[in-house]
Amino acid sequence: VAGGDNVETPGKPGTDIKVDPKEPKLESEKTAKNLDSDKDKYEAGDTVVYTIKTRNTVTDSLVENLTISDKLPAGLTYVEGSLKAS
C-alpha cells in the first residue's frame, strides 16, 4: 500500500490500436462409413455414420456464428441423440 501527498490517479491510455481482422476461409469434407458392412452399398437396417469436418484455413482469423447443415440421403433415418460435435 502506498500513500503520501503526491499520489495521482492515472488517466485513460491515449493510444488507439487499429485491428484489421482477417477474413476466414472454410473448407469442409464429408465422409460416410457403414458400421454394419464393408460394402459400398447400403442395405435396409445398416447404420451409416456421416462425418463432416470443417476447418478455417486462414491463421489468426475468426469464424463466428457458424452453422453446418446437411440433408440425409433418401431412405435414411436420423438416429435420435446420435449427433456429436466438437
TrEMBL record:
Gene3D superfamilies registered for this protein in UniProt: 2.60.40.740
Phylogenetic classification of the source organism: Bacteria, Bacillati, Bacillota, Bacilli, Bacillales
Domain of life: Bacteria
Domain DUF11: 37-82
Comp. bias regions, Basic and acidic residues: 15-36
Organism whose genome encodes this protein: Bacillus sonorensis L12
Ranges for region Disordered: 1-36
Full protein name: Cell surface protein
